[in-house]
Amino acid sequence: MILIDGNELADEIKEKLRIEVSELKQNGIHPKLTVILVGDDFASKKYVNNKKMACEYVGIEQGMIELGVNATEEELIMVIRKLNSDESVHGILIQLPLPKHIDVYKIINIINPNKDVDGFHPENVGKLSIGCEGVIPCTPNGIMKLLEKYDIDVRGKNCVVIGKSDIVGKPISMLLLRESATVTVCHIETRDISNITKQADVLIVATGNPGLITADMIKPGVVIIDVGINRNEYDEVCGDVDFEGCKNKASYITPVPGGVGPMTIAMLMENCVKAARGLENKGEKKYV
Ligand code: NAD
Description:
The chain is of the alpha/beta class. The chain folds into two domains: 26-119, Rossmann fold, CATH 3.40.50.10860; 138-261, Rossmann fold, CATH 3.40.50.720. It has ten helices and eleven strands. The radius of gyration is 19 Å and the shape is globular. 43% of the residues are buried. The chain binds nicotinamide-adenine-dinucleotide.
């Protein structure tokens, strides 16, 4: 079994970006990401802090706008419109989840797609589905980079994705299709999941259920990408896959933590730098 090291690749990518950012600065371009945080959710604050540390390392300036938990949709929209027209801001990130009274899809729609460094705007989602260049969501992009780094070719392979969220399951399915994988997407309503997971050459799990995938559900030699971030009964961070049970049956496996998580942040940094260079949204069709 080969352990897929997300920390190592994320560090390599951030190091390259750090050099790129210092060159951009010499040419008068100062990449800037502004994060909007609504409310005081503990986990969100932690994620925002991780992003801030990565920005500091890479040399991206980080703006922070904090709104109270009772902020209205209109207030948030006004803030986004202001950032859209602020030329010093290249990336806008709205930390999710938003409080329940705010319609997240309405809000995402307001962001200038060129500054949408999460890749959640419908224009970027559309470009991803038809194989045009656009901003790619960070977690799925990070997964594809890990597969590439470890020379795992998905062309023609049975790739099974568990989870169909807009953030992970759907975009990773699209990216795998781009690379001509045969993709099966499972979710909470899927019947007899283990019958499907046993066919997987590559298994990508993003559900938020610790220990969902066990050794009896996989075939020998499978590549396992565990996206889940959960807490186990000992309050330790763990994924959706029973790592200890599956590791010796898999050919490659990502650990949690240290697998997909660090890549998500590295890809966010990459999206910010691309946005600052104006490279992200040419819209050319590149994939069939
Ligand atoms: P989500 O709640 O939006 O979606 C979960 C998906 O899993 C749904 O499509 C649901 O149908 C499916 N699902 C739930 N239980 C299932 C079950 N028992 N069997 C089959 N399918 C099931 O979640 P999300 O935002 O996609 O996140 C999923 C997990 O990935 C979470 O643990 C989250 O913390 C983690 N995550 C990690 C990163 C990272 O950087 N590593 C990024 C985003 C999300």
